[in-house]
Write a structure and sequence with these properties.
- The structure holds two protein chains of two kinds.
- Chain A is an alpha+beta fold.
- Helices cover about 70% and strands about 10% of the residues of chain A.
- Chain A contains eleven helices and five strands, in the order H-H-H-H-H-H-H-H-E-E-H-E-H-E-H-E.
- In chain A, helix 2 packs across helix 5.
- Chain A is rod-shaped.
- By secondary structure, chain B is mainly α.
- Chain B has a domain of about 110 residues.
- In chain B, helix 1 packs antiparallel against helix 2 and helix 2 packs antiparallel against helix 3.
- Classes of the chains: A alpha+beta, B mainly alpha.
- Chains A and B meet through helix 5 of A and helix 3 of B.
Amino acid sequence: MNARAMAPRLACALLPALLAACATPPKPKELEAYEMLRTGNNLQEANKKSPDLVASAEKLGEKSREEWQSNDLEDSRRDAIMANIKLKTALALMEQEQLKTKIQTLSADQAKAEEEAADLSEKLANETEKLALLQKYVEARKTAEADKQRLSAQMTSEQQKSQAEHERLALQLASEQKIAAAQLSLRTADTVDASKFAKAEYSAASDMLAKASAELKQNDYAGAQASAEVAKKNADKATEMAKPLYEQAEQTSQNKARDDALARDASAISGADVRLERRGDLQRLVIAVPQMFSKRKPDISAGQDGVLEAIAALLKKYPTYPVQIIGYTDNRGKASELLAVSAARAQTVYSALAAKGVETKRLMASGLGGDDPRFDNKSASGRAKNNRIEIVFLYH
Amino acid sequence: MTARSGRSLRIFFAAAICAAFAASPRAGLAGEEDDLQREIDNQRVSVADLERLDELKATGDEITLLRSWLDEAWSLRSKHEYDQVREVLERTRKQADLIRAKITASKLRAQAATRENALADVRAKIARNKKALAETMKKKKALEGTEKVGDKGSTQ
C-alpha cells in the first residue's frame, strides 16, 4: 500500500480521535445544577438583597464554566459547588426577607382582620341581644295577649257568675224580706190574739209562712215570695179582723179590773154604803152616804167633809166614769117638796165636789125625793137612812 | 572575651540556627494539622447544633452533604492534603451558613404559615359572623314586621 492510498484511511481513523480530543468534556452536574438554579425567577431579587453573595456566586460560576471548557473538571466542579452554595444562601436570605415582609403583612392583616372580627362580633352580639330581646318581647306580648284574653274571658265568666249570684242573693234577700214582713204581720196578729179572734186567717197565714220558709230553703225564691205575700195578706187580714174583737175584749178586761178596783176603793170609804147593781147593760156602783143633811134641809151637816173629800178623791182617781149624784128623802111630806129637797141636796153635793176640783161635766145631779127607799120608812132609823145621797158610778 | 570563647559562641549560634531551620517545617506542619483537626471537630459539633436547630427538618440534604464534606476534609487531612482540607472547610463553612439561612427561612415560613392559618381562621370567623349577622338582621326584620302588624292589630 502506498502512502497516497494510506493517507485518507489514516485521516479517517485519526479524525474522530482528534475531534474527540478537541471536543468539550461533559458538563459537571454541579455546574448544571448551578445553572439550573440561576434560571429561577428569584435571581434579581436575591441580587438586590445580597449583591456580594450573588456576585461572588456568578464569578465562581463563570470560573467553573471556564474551567469546564478548559477541561479542568475537578476545579470546575469545586467552584460550581461553591457558586451553588453562595447562590442558594443568597436565595435563602432573600426568602427570609420576603418571608419577614410577608409575616409583617400577615400580622398587619391579622390585626386588621381581628379588629374587624371583634367589631363584627360586637355587632353580632349586640344584634343577637337585640334579637333575643325582641323575641322575648314578642313572646311576652303574645303571652300577655293570651293572658289578657284569658283574663277577659275569666272576668266575663266571673262577672256573669257574680251577676247570677247577685241576682240570686237579691231574690233571696227579697224573699227573706217578704218572709220577715209576713212574720212581722203574724207577730202583729199575735198581739191582737188573732189565733183566737180570726182563727182561719191566722192559721192560713201560719201555714203559708211555713211554706215560704221551706221554699226559701229549697232556693225557690219566687215561690217563697208568693207564699210570703199570701201569708202576709192573711196575717194582715187576721189582724184586721181580730183587732176590734181583741180591743173589745181587752177593754172589757181592763174595765172590769178598773171596776173592781173602783169597788174596792169605794168600799174603803168610811161612812158610806157601797153596792153594785145591774140595770140592763149598765152596771151601777152606788156609794150611799146617809144622814149627810139635817132634816128637810139641803145643807150638808157638819162633820161630813171627810166623806166628801174621800168621794172627791175617788172621782178624781177614776175620771172616765160618768157619775150621777142623786138626792133621796124619806117619804114624809109632799112628794114635790121631797123632790125639790132631794134635788137641792144633790146640787149641794155637786157644788161641793166641784169645789174640791172634780170635773163637773161628767157629773149629773138629780133628786128622786122619797122614791126608791132603801130602808123601812116606818122606823125613825129607817127614815134617817133613807135621807141620803147616792154617788152612782155608771159603766157597762 | 577571649578569641576562643568568641569562636565557640559563633559555632553554637550557627548550630542552633541550623537546627531551627531543620526542625521548623516539621513543627509548622504538625500545628496546621492540629488546627485543621480542631476546625473539623468544631464544625462537626456545629452540625449537631444545626440539626437540633432544624426543628422542621428543612435542611436534611444540606446537612448530609455537609457531613460528607467534613468526612472528606477529615480524609484529606489524614492524607496531609492541607490545602484541599482548607478548601473543603471553607466550603463547609459556607454550607453551614446556607443551612442556617435555610433553617431561619424555614422557621419564618412556618411562622408565616401559622399567621396565614390564623388569618384564614379570623377571616373564616368574619365570614361566619357576617353570615350570622345577616341572618340575625333578617330575623329581626321579620320579627319587627310581625310586631308592626301586631301593633296595628292591637290598635284596631
